[in-house]
Amino acid sequence: MKHVEFPGGEKVPALGLGTWKMGVGDADEAAQLRALMVGIGKGMTLIDTAEMYGDGRSEQLVAKAIEGQRDRIFVVSKVLPGNASRKGTIKACENSLKNLNTTFIDLYLLHWRGTYPLAETFAGFEDLKAAGKIRHYGVSNFDVDDLDELAAEVPEAQCAANQVQYNLSDRGIEWDLYPRCQKDGVAMMAYCPLGQGRLINNAGLGAIAQKHGVTNAAIALAFTLRLPGMISIPKSSHEKRVLENAAAADIVLDAEDLAALDKLFPPPRKKRSLAMT
Ligand code: NAP
């Protein structure tokens, strides 16, 4: 498993597990739990969730997956912007801790920018950190101008990560946001790394997948993992697919593969606004 280094030198797995839409509706919860457990078994010991996902039901599913093995899992959750006042952030986190049945969250993110001043949200993050309820904090869906504002408004902020949409079809961050996060020592997390499943059917991926003896999905994920400091969090409710996705951790795309991917999915030639789902 590749790793990404967090502040303090902690090593976090580069390939984790997304959970959006898990634990909700008439989902087969036992199958979803098995999918998460299979991923954990393959070293995908970072799990991404949020208070928003199923109004806490995704966090409740994650609670079941981490039970009895909390210390080997890196749990990421997020506060909704509408809750992100100083007090609201603390309350939201405490609610997430209940859902997750744990005493701490490893990485707590502002899900996207809202109307509360960043200084308020980050004061809440600092309070939570001081209380041992979160270990790291960061942001999601922040573009370069948002990071500039954060630096101006909360210069002391220890922003550990920025979670954004990144996949073969959405490469805009390669232009400026990824280099900026690298320069600032901010880990990046690629969400929708499979383009929500749409990328997998791209015929062009087939030849590269065949060469490596893996599925198209694994190639799409390996593409995101090629970047140092990038964590990728594919979601699947199916064990078999999680195993396919786990294979991405061992793939090294060579120059020929990368040139072929650039042809299929051209890199940005100018600033693109940040893609969001
Ligand atoms: P994704 O991981 O790109 O794609 C998930 C979709 O692909 C699901 O429909 C899944 O179906 C399918 N899939 C997964 N592995 C597959 C495989 N090997 N073969 C075929 N199909 C496969 O999209 P995502 O779930 O939207 O994004 C990943 C995670 O990022 C989320 O779960 C969430 O944790 C996070 N996220 C964060 C934000 C944010 O604003 N911060 C926004 C979106 C997502 P099955 O489940 O049926 O297998």
Shape: globular
Q: Which oligomerization state do the chains in this entry correspond to?
A: single chain
Helix content: 25-40%
Main beta sheet: strand number and arrangement? 7 strands, parallel
Counted by DSSP, the helix tally is: 10
Q: State the total count of DSSP E strands.
A: 9
State the strand order across the main sheet. Answer: 3-4-5-6-7-8-9
Reading the helices and strands in chain order gives EEHEHEHEHEHEHEHHEHH
Ends: how far apart? Answer: 27 Å
Average of per-residue pLDDT values: 97
Radius of gyration: 18 Å
Structural class: alpha/beta
Hey, roughly how much beta strand do the residues contain? 15-25%
Bound molecules: NADP nicotinamide-adenine-dinucleotide phosphate
Pick out the low-confidence regions. Answer: none
Description:
There is one protein chain. The chain is α/β, with parallel strands linked by helices. Helices cover 38% and strands 16% of the residues. The protein has 10 helices and 9 strands. The protein has helices spanning 29-41, 57-66, 86-100, 118-130, 144-153, 177-184, 205-212, 216-225, 239-246, 255-264, and strands at residues 3-5, 11-13, 46-48, 74-79, 105-110, 134-140, 159-165, 187-191, 230-232. It has a 7-stranded parallel β-sheet with strand order 3-4-5-6-7-8-9. A hairpin with a 5-residue loop joins strand 1 (3-5) and strand 2. The radius of gyration is 18 Å and the shape is globular. 48% of the residues are buried. The mean pLDDT is 97. NADP nicotinamide-adenine-dinucleotide phosphate binds at residues 18-20, 48, 111, 140-141, 163, 191-197, 200, 215, 217, 233-238, 241, 244-245, 277.
